[in-house]
Amino acid sequence: MSIVFVTGRDPSTPKASGLYAFFSALLTRSHPNWSLLGPGLGEGLRYISAADPTEFIDVYANLNDSSVSLDSLGVPHEVRLYSPITTLGSAPSGPHSLFVVTVETKDTDEARDEFYRCNEEEHVHLLAKIPGFIRSRRYQLEKYTGTTSKPHTYLTLYEVESPKFVEEQGLVDSTMTPWFKKVVEEAVVGMTKGVWVLQS
Description:
The protein has 200 residues and is an alpha+beta fold. It has helices at 19-27, 109-128, 169-174, 178-186; strands at 2-9, 41-49, 55-62, 78-89, 97-105, 133-145, 154-160, 188-198. The chain has an eight-stranded antiparallel barrel. Helix 2 runs antiparallel to helix 4 (178-186).
């Protein structure tokens, strides 16, 4: 199932322009623009940045890819639609956090294939052994709006028990294998990482 991924800031910051309240209303389906996104948009979850509490992301299940219109919201926003690649693990049953990783590879089939194989055959299985791991979901960017620069093509959402997951030695070890280091050096041209906590 694909997802709609929204990024924004709390209204206490000048960049917000009502964005936080707007998407809060969308989360509860109480905003009149809800229907403009399309009937296929499922329930959403909000996460707050562990590093900067003014930043938030909303993650919606997209039940029908063709029904979502990203350009119909009418407010400053950054919204991305991702299609699924792979999933490992089961959905969390309670409070959890997100370890979010985005990656851009070189624009060659060889680079994309090597990145994919390393993740699927080695990296994600090492992460799955780390205490606190719940589920990994990998996605590929389909379309986006609200930004002039293209977001990274690949998004991975690691659902974990707490933000302390990123302090585990196993996470460091998973990035130090010969294969992973080779992929980062030869195939990857951009990467971001962040930890987000489910809003209660």
